[in-house]
Structure prediction request, 661 residues.
Amino acid sequence: MRALASAVALLLSACALSQAQPDIPAVVVDPSAASRADLLAAVTKALGVSRITIADDALTADSTLIIERSRLLDSTGRQLSGRDYGKPEIFSLVKNGSHCVLVRTSDASRQVLEKTSCRQIP
Amino acid sequence: MLPRCASTLPAASLAGFFLLAFTACGGGGGSSGNPGTVIGNPGGSGTTTYVPGTFQPSATFEAKCAVPRTGRDPNNGNQPFPDSPGTVTSENNWLRSWTNETYLWYSEVTDLNPALYSTADYFDLQKTMATTASGADKDKFHFVLPTDQWEQLSQSGVQAGYGAQWFLIAAAPPREIVVAYVDPGSPAAAAGLARGDSVLTVDGVDAINDGSSAGVDTLNAGLFPEATGDTHALTLRHLNGTIFNLSLQSASVMSTPVQNVTAIPTAAGPVGYMLFNDHIATAESGLITAINNLKAQNVTDLVLDIRYNGGGYLDIASELAYMIAGPARTTGQTFDRIAFNDKNPTTDPVTGAALTPTPFHTTTQGFSTTTGTALPTLDLDRVYVLSGSGTCSASEAIINGLRGVDVEVILIGGTTCGKPYGFYPTDNCGTTYFSIQFGGVNAKGFGEYTDGFTAQNTVAPGAERITGCSVKDDFTHALGDPLEARLAAALNYRSSAGTCPTAPTGPVLMSKQEQAPAAFEGYAPKSPWRENRIMRSRH
Prediction:
C-alpha cells in the first residue's frame, strides 16, 4: 500500500513537473549499474516485454533511445524477417526540473528515472 | 514441444535446433490419431473430424494447446496467456486452417490429416513442395521459433559480441571463418581485427577441423557470445600470414549500419561508395548523412555495397532508393506493392487494412530522425550494386524498386538470396510460425526473383539476370578499397563501357602459399546472439 502511494505520489509529481516546467533534452551522466537497471526497468514496463538488450552507455551521448525487435537468423545465417513493415519504439530522455524523465514517443507516457543523473544538452 | 530429432526438422529450421538434433535425437512426439476419427469438438479441445478439402476458420482452433502455457505473459504486459487445453491435433488443425487462409501458395499445399503428425512435422508439410527453375525450393523461408525468443527486443543495433562480423566460407569442417568487417569503436576494432583475418582456434579448439559436438559448442560460444563480459581466447591469422592470439571480452556493441562512405576520384568524375549492412532504425540517419556527404562531393555515380545486407525495414529501403534516384523518376511511383493470396486480393488478411503500395518515400519516416524532413537526393539514373548471397529481402527490394522506375541497376558480385516475400510471424501455443504470406512487386509489377538477382554473365543457371558482372568476394582487401575485387570490377565496368572480368565457374580457392582466405560465397550471420548455433559439426 505504501509502495502504491509512493508510486501515485511520484506520478503526480512527475505530472505536475511536466506541466510546470519545460522538458529539456538530456543525456545520462555517471551511468551506474543502478541507473542502467533503472532505465531497463522503465523501458520494460513501458513496452510490456521481459527481454530487452540495452547498451551500457545508452542515453549517454544522445537523448534518444531506439528499441526494435532483435535480429534473429535462420540456419543459413539470414534474417528471419528481412522485410519489416513496422516501426521501432522511440524514447527520449528529458530533464524536467531536477528529474530525469523517460518519455515514450508513441504515447507520450512518462517515467521518472529515480536512480539516474542527467544533464541537459544543447 | 519442438521435435528433437533431425529427421523431423525442416531444411530451413533454425540452426539451434539443427545442432541440438545431433546431441539429443530420439525425442519428439508424433500423434497417434486416426483419419476420420472424431476426437472432440471445436469449442472444446479444438480437435475435429478431418474432412479433406474442408477447412474451418483457424480461430476455431487458436490457442488450444497440447501443453497450454499458464500464468501471465511477460512479453504481453503480463496479460494471461490465451492458451486452453487442447491436443497436438488441435494445434495441427490450427496450422492447417491458418495455412489455407493466409499462405501465399495455399493451393499448392497437400491437404493432410492433422491427426497423423507431430506439430513440427505437420508445419513442415504446410508449404509448397514446388521447385524453381534452378531446382531450389520455391519456399525457402518456412520457420518456427519459440515465441519468447521472437519477442525479445534490443536497442537498435546493439548486441552482445565483439563487433566483428564473421563470414563463414565453410561452416562445417574443414571450416573457413574470416572477418568480413569490423564495427568502429568495438572490442574487435580495438584489438586490431580486420577484414580477411581468419580464425584458427577458439578457446583451444581447432576452428578448422574440430567436428565434435563439444568443439562446436566451444566455437559457437566463443565467436557468438550471448552475454556481455564473456572472455574468450582466439588465435587468428592476418592476411600477411602473421599468427596472433587475442583475448576478447564481449560487450554491448553498437553496430554501424552505414560505413566507409567515400568519394573515389576517377577520370570521369568522383564515384561514391558506401557500405550499407543492415536496415535497422539507426541506418536512416546514417544513410542521410552518407548521401549528403556524397552529394557535397559531387559524385556522378554510386557504388552501393549491400553484399552483407540481409534487409530489415522496407521503408528505409524505399528512402534509400529515393535518395539514389531522386524525384524525377520516382514521383507518384510505387516502390513496392505487396500481394497476398487470391483469397485476399484487396485487403491484408491479418490487419484487415486495404492494400496500399509503398511509395518512394521523399521524407524521413522517423526511424532515427525527425519525421517529415525532406530527403537529399543524388538524382542518378544508374547505380552499381555490390551483391552476394547475403543480399536479401529489403536489400533486394532496393534493386527491384529502382528497376521498376527504370534506374539501371548494375549488379557486381554474387547472386542475391531471392526473397521477395514476407510474413506476419504468428504465435500459437508458444511457438511463432513464419510462413510466407505475401510477395512484393515493383512499379512494373515484377517480383519473380525467387532464385535471386544475378549478373548477366553468371555461369550458374537460374536467377533473374540483370546487367553486371559475376565476381567472387575478396577478403584480401578492405571494403571500400578500389582494389577490392567487386568494387574494382564496378569501377572498371564504368570506365570500360561494360567490361567484366572473367566470370568464376565455381568456388575459387587461393593457394595455401598465399595464406589468404578463399574468395567465394559463404555467408555472414548477423547478430546470432540468441539463436547462435551457426557452426556445424558436419555437412
The mean pLDDT of chain A is 85. Chain A is about 30% helix and 30% strand. The longest strand of chain A covers residues 89-96. Residues 22-74+84-120 of chain A form one domain.
